[in-house]
Design a protein that fits this description.
- Keywords: Dioxygenase, Oxidoreductase.
- It comes from Paenibacillus arenilitoris.
- GO terms for molecular function: 2-oxoglutarate-dependent dioxygenase activity.
- InterPro entries: Fungal_Metabolite_Diox (IPR051961), Phytyl_CoA_dOase-like (IPR008775).
- This protein starts with 5 loop residues before the first helix and ends in a 10-residue tail after the last strand.
- By secondary structure, the protein is an alpha+beta fold.
- The chain is globular and about 45 Å long.
């Protein structure tokens, strides 16, 4: 949660007061299909028409080697600041999906334990897992301190107290002292 390699980069990009607002796994199960191309958040100000500085980063850490067969992340490096249809990024006929077919994409292959840090607005999608095993990826979202999107993380007090100081700082705005909730309980 406070990776010694990732945090200096995240701190540099997001400045002081970084907070972690999301902690989960992205798992491509056997037989999964392509996701639609999407960004994880809509624009902050969709009508503004200008590209804003980075305010949220995603850290992905694969727990297994990621290869062509087990569902690698596919990214569109040039799409980070483009969002032609604003929040309608899941529709199969959405403008983002159409635009992505004409842009360069790359699949992200990496060994277990690697890290990927990306702007939360980066266009991406999951790809099919053609193996018999899950491809599990830890996902964390780090935001500037003024931006709280990402969910509500419940952390029991004894768990929070046992965390290293830097990790406590990252989760300081979350629901401390509450029983942990599973994602389906949110």
């Amino acid at each position: 949660m406070a990776n010694a390699i990732a945090m200096p980069v995240i701190d540099r990009v997001l400045d002081d007061g970084v907070r972690c607002t999301y902690l989960a796994s992205d798992t491509a199960c056997p037989g999964s299909d392509y996701q639609n191309v999407h960004s994880d958040l809509p624009p902050l100000f969709p009508g503004l028409g200008v590209s804003l500085p980075v305010y949220s980063l995603v850290l992905n850490v694969p727990l297994v080697d990621v290869n062509e067969e087990n569902g690698p992340l596919e990214v569109w490096p040039g799409g980070t600041h483009l969002n032609p249809d604003n929040t309608e990024h899941t529709a199969i006929d959405g403008e983002m999906v159409k635009a992505a077919t004409m842009m360069h994409a790359e699949k992200v292959f990496m060994p277990a334990g690697s890290i990927v840090i990306r702007d939360i607005r980066m266009w991406h999608r999951g790809t099919p897992n053609r193996t018999n095993a899950n491809r599990t990826n830890v996902a964390l979202i780090y935001n500037k301190d003024w931006y709280g999107a990402g969910g509500e993380i419940h952390i029991p007090q004894e768990t929070y107290d046992a965390l290293p100081p830097r990790v406590r700082e990252l989760f300081r705005f979350e629901r401390i002292g509450y029983a942990a909730k599973m994602p389906w309980e949110w």
